[in-house]
Design a protein that fits this description.
- By secondary structure, the protein is of the alpha/beta class.
- The protein has one domain: Rossmann fold (3-Layer(aba) Sandwich).
- The chain contains nine helices and eight strands.
- Helix 5 links the parallel strand 5 and strand 6.
- Helix 3 packs across helix 9 and helix 4 packs across helix 5.
- Belongs to the 'GDXG' lipolytic enzyme family.
Length: about 290
């Protein structure tokens, strides 16, 4: 945990622009992967990229990926540490995009951009049931709120959802905020509070479009959740799984012993195994 904390602190910076650049530089390590190809596109002025496996793959099934970063940082470049694994483990194309970030663009800017990316896929001719929506941390929040927005609009929902260490409760009430506070090498309460202040502003924290844990999950598609047991957002995932099941939704959660927040970004066997489990879930529900 100390080693992971040291690596994480290396890219942290009080200057938000430098912090974002450090993350992009870290993500650029994956640009040279021979297993995938990257294609930059623009979606109505929003930068995005396709990540495609260099082998025969499913052309009519796609993953829409929402990166994390506390709503303040992150990009499709930083997310390559996950999107490349997703593309290779599933043999599906992955679309990741740069939604607008706080504090320059607070709520609901990020949610508007997620919906824009969804609409783009529909414009390309994908059906809702051809799409898996996945995301990590704040991106996991956006995965859930996208479906809430689609439900609100009476639209068809994606085939399934994958939430990696999702941030579901901005009231910070989960027990793990106390029980994991000393051992979490990545997140801290101060970081989460600063992200809330940047993103939410004066909005009500229990608004389901801000804290989806308070949402009505009836009618949701199948959901797969992965979380490490050494992170303060552990109970955000546990409570989400319980609420989904209570609403009659097919939900599965895997809690990875000794792992930290979004450990799937790391280049080691357990991270690749976790991505293979995501692929198994997708194959199961996609038929």
């Amino acid at each position: 945990m100390k080693a992971i904390k040291a690596v994480h602190r290396m890219i942290e910076n009080s200057d938000i622009d430098k912090y974002r650049q450090s993350q992009d530089n870290l993500g650029s390590i994956y640009t040279n992967s021979k297993e995938v190809e990257f294609e930059d596109i623009m979606i109505d002025g929003m930068p995005a990229e396709w990540v495609t496996a260099n082998r025969p793959h499913q052309e009519r099934k796609v993953i829409l990926y929402c990166h994390g970063g506390g709503f303040k940082t992150g990009s499709f470049r930083y997310a390559r540490s996950i999107t490349t694994k997703l593309a290779t483990s599933t043999s599906m194309d992955v679309l990741c995009f740069d939604y607008r970030l706080a504090p320059e663009h607070p709520y609901p800017a990020a949610q508007e951009d997620v919906l824009k990316a969804w609409d783009y896929l529909m414009y390309l001719g994908y059906g809702a049931r051809d799409v898996i929506v996945a995301g990590d941390s704040a991106g996991g929040n956006l995965v859930l709120t996208l479906v809430l927005k689609l439900k609100e609009q009476g639209r068809k929902l994606p085939k399934g959802l994958v939430c990696i260490s999702p941030w579901t409760d901005m009231t910070l009430q989960g027990r793990s905020h106390e029980t994991r506070m000393e051992i979490d090498p990545v997140l801290s309460r101060d970081y989460l509070i600063s992200s809330i202040n940047a993103y939410v502003g004066g909005e009500e924290l229990e608004n389901p479009f801000i804290s989806p844990l308070f949402a009505d999950f009836s009618g949701f598609p199948p959901v797969y959740i992965q979380v490490g047991d050494n992170e303060i957002l552990l109970h955000d995932s546990i409570c989400l799984d319980k609420k989904l099941r209570k609403a009659g939704v097919y939900s599965r959660i895997d809690i990875f012993r000794g792992m930290w927040h979004v450990f799937q970004m790391s280049p080691f066997k357990k991270a690749y195994d976790a991505m293979d489990q995501i692929a198994e879930f997708i194959f199961e529900i996609a038929g």
